[in-house]
């Protein structure tokens, strides 16, 4: 009984001291830690807001102008805004984490040796991440593609290339949205080859299969007429850089030959122009009664 009363008395005497220590810690280091975390969260919100404002301004300039496609400068600035935001937030989070550790009583000088060992261990496992970041740096600085570009990317270890519209670019990954609406994330370090289908200008090419016995001269005349009418069409003319031309016989077999027709278009508009030209060619061939093969 005596000992139990002594323990209760000791606990009652120690409790105010413990409560005082916690209160003083909250008023000093604890409050600073809370403020640092809140500051990091607010800074992240502000950086994201600033990035969205910049990208919205770029997009509004694109929609409000006369251009039908984004300029290369606009696409590069869009991608650059995304990359800079990612870098700034990463640096801010690392600095805040170091400050929080310091206020929790971890000595930064005492962490040098363990950090060196941990860095050496992670160095072998983080080679892929470093490779991704370096590859992303050169992708951005060399302007291989930007936001809104239509690209085809060959990826290491994957037979089928990733193809779609660039929606997000960071130093580590590139995100594409394919025609089916699926989002494809590609680590930059695994990119082997990039085919940009919407840089500066593009080319729409269609092959017209006809029977080997068909009148080639007449078919060429019809295709030239189709190209001239397409270039004069108020709906198609803004998408074309020049009048579609007939390249001639591209392939020849015993019973069939392919005649190729090409047109230079605005970047990213080659698919729309190709579809329209195919419709016009099919209608013209049927109207003229020429021997076309499906």
Describe this structure in words.
It contains six helices and eight strands, in the order ααααββββββαββα. The protein is an alpha+beta fold. A hairpin with a 3-residue loop joins strand 2 (162-169) and strand 3 (173-177). The radius of gyration is 32 Å and the shape is elongated.
Blueprint of the fold:
Elements: H1 2-64, H2 72-103, H3 112-125, H4 127-141, E1 150-155, E2 162-169, E3 173-177, E4 183-187, E5 191-196, E6 202-211, H5 216-232, E7 245-252, E8 256-265, H6 270-288
Antiparallel strand pairs: 1-2, 1-5, 2-3, 3-4, 6-8, 7-8
In short:
The chain has 294 residues and is an alpha+beta fold. It starts with a helix and ends in a 6-residue tail after the last helix.
Helix content: 40-55%
How would a crystallographer describe the biggest sheet? 5 strands, antiparallel
* Structural class assignment: alpha+beta
Quote the beta fraction: 15-25%
Computed Rg = 32 Å
Count the helices. How many?
Answer: 6
Average of per-residue pLDDT values: 78
Record the strand order, biggest sheet. Answer: 4-3-2-1-5
- Give the topology string: H per helix, E per strand: HHHHEEEEEEHEEH
Number of strands: 8
Oligomer category: single chain
Low-confidence stretches: 1-15
Shape: elongated
Distance between the amino and carboxyl termini: 103 Å
């Amino acid at each position: 009984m005596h000992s139990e009363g002594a323990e209760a008395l000791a606990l009652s005497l120690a409790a105010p001291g413990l409560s005082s220590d916690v209160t003083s810690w909250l008023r000093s280091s604890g409050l600073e830690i809370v403020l640092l975390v809140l500051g990091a969260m607010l800074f992240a919100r502000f950086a994201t807001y600033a990035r969205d404002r910049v990208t919205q301004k770029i997009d509004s300039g694109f929609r409000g102008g006369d251009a039908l496609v984004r300029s290369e400068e606009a696409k590069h600035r869009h991608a650059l805004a995304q990359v800079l935001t990612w870098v700034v937030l990463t640096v801010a989070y690392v600095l805040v984490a170091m400050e929080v550790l310091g206020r929790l009583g971890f000595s930064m000088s005492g962490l040098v040796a363990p950090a060196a060992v941990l860095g050496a261990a992670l160095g072998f496992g983080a080679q892929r991440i470093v490779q991704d970041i370096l590859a992303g740096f050169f992708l951005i600085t060399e302007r291989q593609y930007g936001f809104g570009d239509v690209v085809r990317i060959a990826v290491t270890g994957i037979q089928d290339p990733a193809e779609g519209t660039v929606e997000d670019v960071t130093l580590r990954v590139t995100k594409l949205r394919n025609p089916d609406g699926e989002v494809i994330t590609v680590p930059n370090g695994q990119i082997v080859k990039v085919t940009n289908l919407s840089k500066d200008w593009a080319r729409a090419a269609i092959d017209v299969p006809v029977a080997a016995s068909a009148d080639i001269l007449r078919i060429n005349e019809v295709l030239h007429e189709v190209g001239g009418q397409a270039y004069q069409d108020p709906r198609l003319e803004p998408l074309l850089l020049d009048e579609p031309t007939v390249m001639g016989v591209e392939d020849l077999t015993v019973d069939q030959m392919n005649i190729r027709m090409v047109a230079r278009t605005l970047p990213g508009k080659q698919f729309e122009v190709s579809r329209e030209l195919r419709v016009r060619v099919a209608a013209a061939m049927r109207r003229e009664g020429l021997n076309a093969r499906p």
